[in-house]
Design brief:
By secondary structure, this protein is mainly beta. The protein is built from seven helices and 42 strands. Its main location: membrane.
Length: 804
């Protein structure tokens, strides 16, 4: 496998002087947009002071948020939060920055995160879900200060998008180019919960012959806003560009991230009613965690004894004598509060890009990339007690806790899910521009080796000697361990034809994704499965009405390939279960039609769009038990989903310093079929029910003032209720969130102080108490579920920065 990865990564670079960005290494100015059929930036669409660029000239619903707009947010804020104000975008996170990965969710028009496509300078980021098997989250892929633009295509990405999951739209992130002049930019932030965020970037400027680059470093540490624990991240981004003049350019980049974050406790409506939204892990009280685990195991042992003895209890001996059978006051369940949990991710992402002009009409962009990841998800669990003889955190052998303890050394165990990614690929695009016609031919190949294991480590019966934010060693048990290989091959052909006021574009893409599971330990799955479709068409048209107005329309077909994983997709079951579905399971597909109108006149931008989506072979994953138990989900085909809706967006520059932005979206997404077993037995009557986590109405607004000295921003985000069961019997209510910031820049002072700015910002200004993320532990057909996360309360931050 490694020889294949090396060949895929290096050979195209050697042949083509190759390269990161199918989309190009984005020059992306503030007004850059992505044109249909290719991923090239254009000047059409906006100016540097625009909050949002509405995608003029494109046949799809597209908006772009620029670096200038992202810089108005607190440093370190996820670019996903920056695009949350766009129509059709449902973004949730339990932290103020929108970067806490366990909680981060984004969906478009009823499609959840793992049904969208994500790229950075064209390099695929996979489906960006937690425990990503084929990529990494944007918050780890690049520092937010190094982004030039984020473009959202709500309905369908361009044909050349390197993604096998973009059923319902794409987010394309574009990094900044190195500056032509020497510069040092930096910022420092301090705020609520002892938050410290620092950033520095050194631009070399032109070193001669068109060679320039930058090196940047970012650091974030913050205490959790409730409970105990820390979220911390180190990041380094480096980029080097060689400008070859008329021949093109060569770009190389390396990005590194080390992120370690203590988790918040997942909640249910019942837990919230009994313990409130501030319920959290009890990481400060190991003795209490031991007591809860002992009581639970006594209860479980008694239930098993009764079952084995026809309900009798005589002769029963509890494994933890003295602990009793009743939880401490205030606790109704062992799931009310765990001791600790954490997520660890360490990533290297690098690539080389050749962007060249072969002739006056023919050009090529080729990217070679490599990504290495090591990850661990930690949960200290009362469901798996440590056996005597296991090794503790200091390498010592743990003795039996007591004579009656059933051979246990501790009622707690340290459960991990461990990840490793080694993937490499190449993306190459040829473009022939003959004037009226622009032809494109592109291809993408990726080889991905993903390893995943579930292991258990020993815990002490007296004091905690393992940290959830450390990579662990000396497991006492490996429940399962597998190697999952994925080979992706994709091509596309596109043509854009300009006929005066009318522009037509069309083409198709094809893909084949082969998945193979090689189980090394345990009782999950060995086997192969494949998703293949060599003709997925896309057509569109734009008609210029004159006076800044245009009509647009498009139609797109897409397919989502299967994922190779022990915890999601077709391999997350037993061997018998996989054998039963491997020959009949179909990949999810979508057909999207959309159309609308755009208007640009003076400082006004308007966009209105309507859409209809037919989503076939929707695969529903039913969670089983609490997430900490690690039970495999049940995968069922729910048939079709129908979605339709409308989106409105308006941006108005009242005067040079003052800009208003507003968006509204309506979405109706419903399951069209019931979930049935292979023999026709009804499993879940989902027909006519609303798709989970799809608010019917969303409205966002923003006021921005910036006269080059004083600057201020206030934004509001409203959405209606969201269901978190497939049968719609459980939901979370509507909520309105408000953020605000105020700052001042030094101007006219000269020297290093020129442009120095101080800014204060407040998130959740009204201190709204609400549920943010739903589905953190998946979804069930009906009933309450421990799958909710509370949103952060009001938090404040102060930033001093220079050079932005």
């Amino acid at each position: 496998m490694m020889s294949r990865l090396w060949l895929v990564s290096v050979a195209p670079a050697a042949l083509l002087a190759a390269a990161p960005a199918w989309a190009q290494d984005a020059t992306a100015t503030a007004g850059a947009t992505i044109t249909d059929g290719q991923d090239q930036t254009t000047a059409a669409g906006g100016t540097e002071s625009d909050i949002v660029v509405m995608g003029f000239g494109q046949s799809r619903q597209v908006q772009t948020v620029s670096a200038i707009d992202m810089a108005r947010l607190t440093p370190g804020t996820s670019p996903l939060k920056a695009v949350a104000k766009l129509p059709g975008v449902n973004f949730q996170s339990a932290d103020a920055f929108g970067a806490y990965e366990w909680s981060t969710r984004i969906s478009l028009r009823g499609f959840n995160q793992n049904q969208l496509g994500f790229t950075l300078d064209g390099v695929p980021l996979g489906d960006m879900s937690y425990g990503n098997v084929n990529g990494l989250h944007i918050s780890r892929a690049i520092l937010s200060e190094n982004l030039a633009a984020t473009t959202v295509a709500q309905g369908a990405g361009a044909l050349g998008t390197a993604s096998t999951s973009n059923l319902g739209g794409t987010l394309q992130f574009t990094s900044r180019k190195p500056s032509d002049t020497f510069d040092l930019v930096a910022s420092g932030t301090y705020g609520s919960d002892d938050t410290w965020r620092g950033f520095a970037r050194l631009d070399s400027g032109d070193l001669g012959g068109g060679l320039k680059g930058y090196l940047s470093y970012g650091y974030l540490t913050t205490d959790k806003w409730k409970g105990y624990g820390t979220q911390r991240q180190h990041q380094v981004n480096a980029k080097l560009v060689e400008d070859l003049g008329a021949r093109g350019s060569i770009t190389a980049f390396v990005n590194y991230s080390d992120r370690r974050e203590n988790d918040y406790q997942d909640l249910s409506l019942d837990i919230i009613r009994r313990r409130g939204l501030n319920d959290d892990n009890i990481s400060n009280d190991y003795a209490l965690a031991l007591q809860l685990a002992r009581v639970y195991q006594n209860q479980a042992a008694l239930a098993a004894y009764r079952t084995a003895n026809n309900g009798a209890t005589a002769g029963f001996v509890a494994p933890w004598s003295g602990a009793g059978l009743t939880f401490p006051t205030g606790f109704g369940s062992v799931d009310d509060a765990y001791y600790d949990a954490a997520g660890l991710r360490r990533d290297w992402l690098g690539g080389v890009t050749f962007d060249g002009r072969l002739t006056d009409q023919l050009s090529i962009v080729s990217t070679a990339y490599y990504h290495h990841n090591r990850g661990q998800g930690s949960w200290i669990t009362p469901y798996s007690p440590t056996p005597a003889g296991a090794l503790g955190g200091n390498g010592e052998t743990l003795p039996i806790a007591s004579a009656a303890a059933y051979g246990y050394a501790s009622p707690l165990g340290f459960r991990t899910t461990e990840y490793g990614i080694d993937r490499a690929g190449n993306l190459t695009r040829l473009t022939l521009d003959t004037g009226a016609n622009r032809f494109e031919l592109g291809g993408w190949y990726e080889s991905n080796s993903f390893t995943q294991a579930r292991r258990f480590y020993g815990m002490s019966n007296t004091a905690s000697d393992r940290s959830a934010r450390d990579f662990q060693s000396n497991p006492y048990f490996t429940q399962w361990n597998g190697k999952y290989d994925t080979e992706t091959l994709q091509y596309y052909l596109a043509d854009t034809l300009r006929l005066g006021a009318l522009t037509l574009n069309g083409g198709w893409k094809g893909m084949r994704v082969r998945n193979q599971a090689n189980l090394l330990t345990g009782s999950l799955v060995n086997g192969k499965i494949k998703a293949e479709d060599w003709f997925l068409p896309q057509v569109g048209a734009v008609f210029d009405l004159g006076s800044g107005a245009e009509l647009f329309a498009s139609y797109t077909e897409n397919m989502r390939a299967f994922v190779s994983s022990a915890t999601s997709g077709p391999f997350a079951t037993t061997q018998a279960g996989f054998n039963a579905i491997r020959n009949t399971l179909k990949p999810e597909t979508s057909k999207t039609g959309e159309g609308g109108v755009r208007l640009r006149r003076g400082g006004l931008q308007l966009s209105a769009a309507g859409y209809y989506i037919h989503f076939a072979n929707r695969l529903l994953s039913f969670s089983n038990g609490s997430g900490i138990q690690g039970n495999p989900p049940t995968l069922n085909n729910a048939g079709n989903v129908e979605s339709y809706g409308a989106e409105l967006a308006a941006s108005y520059r009242v005067a040079r310093p003052l800009t208003l932005f507003a968006s509204y979206s309506y979405n109706r997404s419903t399951y069209q079929d019931n979930v049935v077993a292979a023999d026709g037995t009804l499993l879940s009557p989902t027909k006519g029910k609303t798709v989970v986590d799809t608010p019917e109405h969303m409205a966002k607004g923003e006021i921005v003032y910036d006269d080059d000295r004083f600057f201020a921003r206030v934004g509001g985000d409203y959405m209606t209720k969201r269901y978190f069961t497939y049968l719609n019997d459980q939901s979370v209510g509507a909520r309105l969130l408000v953020d605000a910031s105020l700052g001042y820049r030094l101007r006219g002072v000269g020297g290093v102080l020129e442009g120095l700015a101080i800014e204060g910002s407040v998130t959740n200004l009204t201190d709204k108490r609400y549920i943010s993320t739903i589905g953190s532990n998946g979804y069930t057909a009906s009933g309450d579920n421990q799958t909710l996360l509370a949103g952060a309360p009001r938090q404040w931050f102060v930033t001093l920065r220079r050079g932005f």
